[in-house]
Structures are given as structure tokens and as C-alpha cells.
Amino acid sequence: MAKKTLIAYFSISGTTARVAKFLSNFVEGDLYEIKAAQPYSKKDLDWHDKTSRSTVEMQDTAARPAIDGTVPNMEEYEVVFVGFPIWWYLAPRIINTFLESYDLSGKIVVPFCTSGGSDVGKTNEYLQPSCKGAVLKPARCLNKVTRDMVSRWLDGLKL
């Protein structure tokens, strides 16, 4: 890509991390792992438990879990891919935290996700307010990625 590109990702199981690394090599972008200040335990992620941390966060649209670290020189990036697993048909709230931590004015934000069976749902609708001043491209689920699939997707984004 001609534009300076960042691939930021949040991954619990490693699935989203693998896709982010694949994408990083494909677009020759820099990788950045979004880490929770308080890491998620297996119990925190039990979506069957209505009191689990992830369930409580996803039910609260104002929840903004703290992040450990920041992207150095974020102002240099023109395109920011942001990857995450789908939780309850949305991006985890930590993605909103990440996006709201930076001035995204003039940047292109491209969400991508992985999922065990859900689609992107209303991901963009819930991410849009966190992307002030940026162009938010449609989220794309990238399960079982191939070079051909990613190439077609990127061509369609017209970056």
C-alpha cells in the first residue's frame, strides 16, 4: 500500500492475531496488539454467565475497558485496520476505547473481525461514534482468509 498503514488488533485466542499478521504481511503495514490493562480470564469471557466481565461490558454501551499501552506515532498513519473477535454481534468495547484514544481526523479506519459463527452485525453502527473525523469503512469478517479473498476485499476498499 502506498499509504502508511497500521494493523491494530485485539485477540484473546490468537485467531484474530493470526489474521492481523497475515494482513500486515499482505499490506506491508505495522502491527500493534491492543492489550487490556486487566487481561481477560476464561471466566471473564463466559458468555453464558450474565455476570461475566465481557457480558457486563457488552451490555453497557458506555463501557470502555482500559488499554495497556499506546501506539507510538499514531499521527503518522493514514490507514488504520482494527481487528477483533466478534462479541455479541459487535466489536468488544475495548475497540471503542482504542479508537477514542486517538485523533483519527483524516484517517481511514477499516474494521475486520473473526468469529466462530456470528457475522459483523451492527459493528459499524457502534464504532462510528468512536471514529470522529475518520472515514469508517464497512467491517469485514475474515475467517479462513486467503490471499485471493484479501486481495479482492482490499481492491473493493479503494484505499
CATH level-1 class? Alpha Beta
Poorly predicted regions:
none
- What count of domains describes the coordinates? 1
- Class by alpha and beta content: alpha/beta
Span between N and C termini? 8 Å
Give me a quick take on this structure.
The protein is α/β, with parallel strands linked by helices and 159 residues long.
Could you please describe the fold and organization of this structure?
The structure is a single chain. The chain has one domain: Flavodoxin domain (Rossmann fold), CATH 3.40.50. The N and C termini lie close together (8 Å). With 159 residues, the protein is α/β, with parallel strands linked by helices. Helix content is 28%, strand content 17%. It is built from five helices and six strands. Strand 1, helix 1 and strand 2 form a beta-alpha-beta unit. The chain is globular, with a radius of gyration of 15 Å. Strands 1, 2, 3, 4, 5 and 6 form a six-stranded parallel beta sheet that branches.
Write the layout of secondary structure elements.
Layout: E1 5-9, H1 15-27, E2 30-33, H2 53-59, E3 79-85, H3 93-100, E4 108-114, H4 123-127, E5 135-136, E6 140-141, H5 147-157
Features:
Rossmann fold, 5 helices, 28% helix, six-stranded parallel beta sheet, 159 residues, alpha/beta, 17% strand, 6 strands
